[in-house]
Write a structure and sequence with these properties.
mainly beta, three-stranded antiparallel sheet, two-stranded antiparallel ribbon
Length: about 100
Amino acid sequence: MYNDLQDALGYRADQNAPFNPTYSIPNFAVSNFPIDPSAPVPATAKLVPGGVQPDLKTPTLISYSLRIERELSLRTSLTIGYIGSHGYHELIELMQMNRFR
């Protein structure tokens, strides 16, 4: 069993305000591009949090293997094996779909 400590999440949270906020603007026409970065943020804009899901848990991976070997004759053997793994509590990247009209 392998547990991954989440002590390096800073790179995923770099979109959080006030340093580098990301906004979702509903019903924004493509003809309004480019956006003036010095203009005030529209009142309808929503701040989109960067990073990971709020209910973050420690990701865990379980690896297992089974191997059976049988001697069939003096110079012949048969080996059958299975290797598997199962992961849970993995990170989910939060993404928001924006529709432009």
